[in-house]
Amino acid sequence: MRIGIALPNYGPLAAPDLLARLAREAEALGVDSVWVSDHLVAPRDTRSVYPYDRRPDARPGDMAVIERFFEPTVTLAFLAGHTSRVRLGVSAYVLPYRNPVVTAKQIATLDVLSRGRAILAIGTGWLREEFEALGVPFAGRGLRTDEYLAVCRALWRGGDAEFEGSCYRLPPVRTGPAPVQQPHPPLWIAGNSTAAMERAARTGDGWHAIDLAPAELAPRVATLRRRIAAHGRRPDDVAVSLRKGVLVGTDGSRPLYGDAAKVRRDLDAYREAGLDYLVVGLRQAKSADELSRAIGDVVAAIGR
Question: 241: closest CA among 213, 204, 207?
Answer without folding.
Answer: 207
